[in-house]
Write a structure and sequence with these properties.
The chain is α/β, with parallel strands linked by helices. The chain is built from twelve helices and twelve strands. It has two domains: 127 residues, Nucleotidyltransferase, domain 5, CATH 3.30.420; 161 residues, 2-Layer Sandwich (Nucleotidyltransferase, domain 5), CATH 3.30.420.
């Protein structure tokens, strides 16, 4: 009888132990719930504390194509290639050597321009063509209702960070001035590899930024992916004008031609390295990742158009970038990691916020594989604004 009672007690104890121990299924359910909380957004937010995003990723039509296509970096290369072929036919030899136009770097083009030879003439001719097209594109955008009253346009992307690009943008500004178009062209304050990361300090929750040193940010383009640690220096400059990127990684993914999921996997790997670097340098990372990419951002974090320069189908109902990143990344600190999504031109534009207080309406054009765009209105009813 005693042995039977002992057997019953043992069974009861085992049941209690099993009940106290969370099952693998329960743990997975809790982890999934945490991931779902981390991806709720807000994604694609259009109204911020200091600025209203009037519109972005406009696809203005021009005949059979889009207006912006004629002012992309790709378009400039096509123009240069056409002039190169013409000068080759006239001179009997290629003034730019054996490399294809696509393979010539910005630095190589700048060096050719400085030598003032036949290659420089071809580059100057292509630059003039491009400036005319850029001026035309600006005027078309200014006719759109979301761009009405824009006083300043920031030219972003990497194109302006070269002598050739700077010359083309300056020339476009003069063409607009000559045609009495009341708009000013300026170039991005930050390095092109950093502007699309720094803009996230204006989108991240202010209360979160107060408690940490930095956030992680991702800028996904049709040619490159950039990931970085963005330090806010919020306590030194509340307007975020001192925000910087102490560490960043860049992957020219177009050269490797990854599939969509391979690209996401690569981004997750880059972010893991940055998390490890932050721990090593004792940079307190907020449990927050801002991810920017081309296209229209839906409130639930999905994408609805404008992603044609990215590999694979990013608009599939089975694909959700914030969720896919969350599933691949470790926790940052003790809390749940939040992943937010917005348009890449919007984020790069927001990096200019501390430098646009003297105007009410402004916009950005990002010259890359395509031509990104966004327009903004500064909120005069925001705290600290007159």
């Amino acid at each position: 009888m005693a042995s039977k009672d002992k057997e019953k007690d043992t069974k009861k104890a085992n049941k209690k132990a099993e009940a106290a121990k969370p099952s693998a299924a329960r743990e997975e359910k809790e982890a999934r719930a945490q991931r779902e909380l981390g991806i709720v957004g807000p994604h694609g937010d259009m109204r911020l504390a200091s600025v209203v995003i009037e519109g972005y990723s406009l696809e203005l039509r021009d005949g059979d194509g889009f207006v912006g296509d004629v002012a992309s970096r790709t378009a400039f290369r096509h123009m240069l290639d056409a002039w190169r072929k013409l000068f080759t036919a006239m001179d009997g030899k290629d003034p730019m050597g054996r490399k294809s136009t696509r393979e010539l770097s910005k630095h190589q083009l700048d060096a050719m321009l400085e030598k003032d030879g036949i290659a420089a003439q071809a580059i100057a001719a292509a630059t003039e063509d491009y400036a005319l097209q850029l001026a035309h594109v600006v005027q078309r955008f200014l006719q759109h209702k979301s761009w009405k009253g824009v006083e300043r346009i920031i030219i972003g992307g990497g194109f302006h960070q070269s002598e050739v690009g700077g010359m083309a943008i300056a020339r476009a500004g003069k063409i607009l001035q000559a045609e009495k178009v009341p708009v000013e062209l300026r170039t991005l304050h930050h390095h092109a590899d950093e502007g699309g990361l720094i803009g996230w300090v204006h989108l991240a929750p202010p209360a979160l930024l107060q408690s940490y040193d930095a956030i992680l940010a991702v800028d996904i383009g049709g040619t490159n992916v950039r990931c970085g640690i963005v330090q806010t220096h919020l306590h030194k400059a509340p307007d975020m004008s001192l925000a910087e990127v102490p560490r960043r990684e860049k992957w020219a993914h177009a050269d490797d031609e990854p599939k969509r999921d391979e690209l996401v996997e690569g981004i997750a790997g880059m972010l893991e390295e940055l998390i490890a670097h932050a721990e090593k340098k004792k940079i307190r990372l907020a449990p927050y990742i801002g991810a920017a990419c081309p296209g229209l951002i839906v409130e639930d974090g999905s994408l609805a158009g404008g992603t044609q320069n990215l590999p694979g189908n990013w608009e599939s109902t089975r694909f959700h970038l914030p969720r896919d990143l969350c599933e691949r990344l470790p926790h940052i600190g003790d809390g749940r990691t939040q992943v937010c999504l917005h348009n890449d031109a919007v984020v790069q534009g927001l990096s200019e916020m501390p430098f646009t207080n003297d105007v009410e309406r402004w916009a950005i054009l990002t010259v890359g594989t395509g031509l990104g765009n966004a327009s903004f209105t500064n909120r005069r009813d925001a705290p600290g604004q007159e």
